[in-house]
TrEMBL record:
UniProt lineage: Bacteria, Pseudomonadati, Pseudomonadota, Alphaproteobacteria, Acetobacterales
Domain of life: Bacteria
GO MF annotations, alphabetized: lipid-linked peptidoglycan transporter activity
Protein name as catalogued: Probable lipid II flippase MurJ
Record keywords: Cell inner membrane, Cell membrane, Cell shape, Cell wall biogenesis/degradation, Membrane, Peptidoglycan synthesis, Transmembrane, Transmembrane helix, Transport
Organism: Aristophania vespae
InterPro entries assigned to the protein according to its UniProt record, in alphabetical order: Lipid_II_flippase_MurJ/MviN, MurJ
An example Gene Ontology CC term for this record: plasma membrane
Underlying gene: murJ
Function comment: Involved in peptidoglycan biosynthesis. Transports lipid-linked peptidoglycan precursors from the inner to the outer leaflet of the cytoplasmic membrane.
NCBIfam families per the UniProt record, alphabetical: murJ_mviN
Annotated transmembrane regions: 89-112, 132-150, 162-182, 188-207, 246-266, 272-291, 312-332, 352-370, 382-401, 407-429, 450-472, 478-502
Amino acid sequence: MLRNLLTVGGWTMLSRLLGLVRDQLLAIFLGAGPLQDAYQIAFRLPNMFRRLLGEGAFNAAFLPLFAARYEQKGASNALKFAGQALTCLLTLLVIFATICEIFMPWVISFIAPGFKHGSSERFMLAVSLTRVTMPYMVFICAAALIAGILNARRHFGAAAAAYVTFNIVGISAIIFGAYVTHNVALSSAWGITISGVVQLGALCWAAKKFNLLPHFAFPHFTPDIKILFKRMIPGLVGSGVTQLNLAIDTIIGTLLPTGSISWLYFADRVNQLPLGVLGSALGTTLLPLLTKHVVANDKTGMQASINKAFDYALILILPASFGLIALAPLIMGGLFGYGHFTQKDIIYSAQSLQAFAIGLPAFVLIKLLAPAFFAQGDTATPVKIGFVTLALNLILNLLLYRPLAHIGPPLASALAGFTNLVIMGIILWRKDILLLTIYNIKRVGKISAACIIMAVTIHLTYKFTLSGALTWSPVPRIFSLFILIIGGAIFYGVLLIGFKLLNLKDIKAILKRRLSKN
C-alpha cells in the first residue's frame, strides 16, 4: 500500500506543483478582481460536476462491479461492461451540457447570485467564459472512468500521470493569452476544455497499452447498466452533498465584496496541495485494498489497513495543517504576491487559508474513512451523514459570512468537515471496522505535540526575523519561504524521531527497498 501511495502521491504532487505555477500566472495577469472572479466561476461549475459524476458517485459504483466482473468473468466481459457504462455516461453528459449551454445565464444566476445583483460586466463575463469551459465536464468524466479502470487493475501511475497534462495545457494557455491574444481569461477558459481532450486521449492510450481500453458500444441501458445506475443513485446523492457544500460556499462568496471569490480560490488552491496529494492517494489506493478484504471476509485485515493509513495520514497532514496556519501570509505572498495581486489580496487570502487549514485534517481523514463504506457497497450511510453536514455548513455560512466575510465560508466548511469525520468514525467503530487502540491514540497525541512545537517555532522565526518579507522582491521572498518550510520539515522529522514515532533503521530499509526496485 505504501508503494502505491507514494506513486500516486508523487504524480499528484507534480500535478499540484504545476497547478501552483498555473495559479501564480493567473494571479499575476488577472489579480483578484471582477475578471478573476468570473473566470473562477467558469472553472468551478464544470469542475463541480466532474467531482460529482466522474470522480464521485459513478466511479464509486462502477469500480466494484468492474473489478468483480474482471475476476469472475474475465477481461473481455469486464471491458464490454465498461464500454457500455462509458457510452451511457457520455450520452447523459452531452445532453446535460447542452442544456446548460442554452440556459447558462439562468445557471450563473443560481450559482453566483451576487454577480447578477452586482456588476453586470462580471455576470456577462461569467456566462461567456462558462459556455467555453462546460464541455470540459464531458471529456474529464470520461477520462475519470478510464482512470478508474486502470486503478482497478493497479496501474496507478499511468492514471495519476495523465492528470499532469491539465496544468501543462493550462500554463500554456495563460502564456498564449498573455502574449498572443492579450485575453488571458478567454484563453485560459479554452485551455480548460482542451486539457480535458488531452487527458482523455492520454488515458485511452495508457488503457490500450495495458489492454484495458473499453469495448465501445451503442448506448443501451442493459440490466447490468441499470444495476450500475441503481447503485450510483445513493452515491450520487452523497457526493452531491459534498458538491452542494462547495456550491453553498461559492454562492455565499459571490455575496461578499468583489475579489472574495478570488481570495477564497487562491487560499483553497494552497490548501488543496496537501489535501489533493495525500487525500487522493489514500482514496485511490485504499478502496481496492479494502474491497479485497471485504471479499475475503477479512475484518482484521481491514482494521489493520485503516489503522496503517490513518497513521500515515496524520504524520503527513497534521504538520501541513499547522504549517499553513503558522506561515499563511508568507505563503500567499511568496506564491502569488506579484503583478496585479496586491498586499490587500495577500492579507485577505492568507486569512482564508488559515481557516481552510483548520479543516484540512478532517477532509483528508474523511477520504480515508469513506472507502470503508464503499468497499462494503454501503453508499447510503455517507449520504445520511452528508445531509447532516450540509445543513450544518449552510447554517454556519449564514451565521459567519457577514461578521467574518471571506473567513466565514472556509471556517464553516472546516467545522462541518470535523462533524462529518466524527460521525463517520463513530459508525465505523460501532461496526467494529474502525478500531483505534490505546497505542494509536498515544501516537496521535505525540504527532500533535510535535506539530505544535514545529508550528510555534517557525511562526516565531518568521515573526522576529522575516516579518518584512512581504515587501521584498520575488526571489528573496520565495527563498525565505523555502528555507522556513525545509527547516520546519527537518525539525519536525527530528521531533518524530525524538518522540519515537519514526525509526531511522526502518526509514533506511524503506529507502533501500525503493532504490533497489529502481
